[in-house]
Amino acid sequence: MKKEEIKKLTWDFESFAQEMDNWIEFWFARDLQYLLWYKEWRNFLKIIIKAKISLETSWEDISDHFVEVNKMVKLWLWSQREIDDIMLTRKACYLIAMNWDTSKSEIAFAQQYFVLQTRKAEIIEQRLLENERVLARNKLAKTEKELSQVIYEQTWSDRNFWIIRSKWDKALFWKNTEEMKNKWWILSSKPLADFMPTILLKAKDFATEITIHNAKSKKMATENEISNEHITNNRSVRKTLIERWITPENLRPEEDLKKVERKMNSEAKKWLKNHKWFWK
User: Fold this and answer.
1) Are residue 148 and residue 247 in the same domain, yes or no?
2) Do the Cβ atoms of 115 and 93 come closer than 8 Å?
3) DSSP letter at 70?
4) What is the b/e burial string over 1-26, where b = at least 16 CB atoms within 10 angstroms of the residue's CB?
5) Is the pTM for the entire model greater than 0.70?
6) Within this chain, do residues 82 and 209 fall inside the same structural domain, yes or no?
7) Which of 41, 95, 118, 130 could pair with 51 in a Cys bridge, judged by C-beta atoms 3.0 to 4.6 Å apart?
8) Domain range for residue 224?
9) At residue 94, does pLDDT exceed 70?
């Protein structure tokens, strides 16, 4: 396929892309029919049915990717007619292209175009999830530092903070810190929180925020008093999670957040290097 043809097809496919209010991109099936050189709508519907069946086998909800709609189209002068159409996600478009004749250059292009678009969206989603986890970890570190400061200011000692924190982990996980590290195959020298899923980071942060609030408002003056308060709060958070079918110690550990941050920083530097023109 020639460079000029690729440029034209790319422009065609992108010019027909629509966007919902929530920034979700989609294509109308009637437009895709035109882009893939289908002559008859009824024949194109057969390919759409095949694509739906393909999606069903992956246990995904068809209504998330194929949305039937009615729209008005112009005929001539001022006359209009209502026709059936279908809103298609990138994945739906890709599955439709996969069920058609790949010997045609337009079809081969469509397959590559939509698989790359879908992959791009998946990468963006993954990066957003990783960023959310990094932010949650940083927030927890800040909150735990504040709690350590509260303990010091109100009891004049924080020498047992790390020993006490292991008891707090046991209240949340039903296992102490070292036991959780062994379960998740984490080196003893690495922080347990660096491997926690976002939901657990936020759960621990919530329990810590409650402890800080109550320690200040109730003017707790001993380490034992604050420690018991925090154990109670972690147990309450654990109870809430379990009621929602989330057992903290049974969740899988995530990638080491230190590695995630290094990867994110490396990608950011690479982007800046490749887009120097953006800042000029």
Assistant:
1) yes
2) no
3) E
4) eeeeeeeebeebbeeeeeeeeeeeeb
5) no
6) no
7) 95
8) 126-264
9) yes
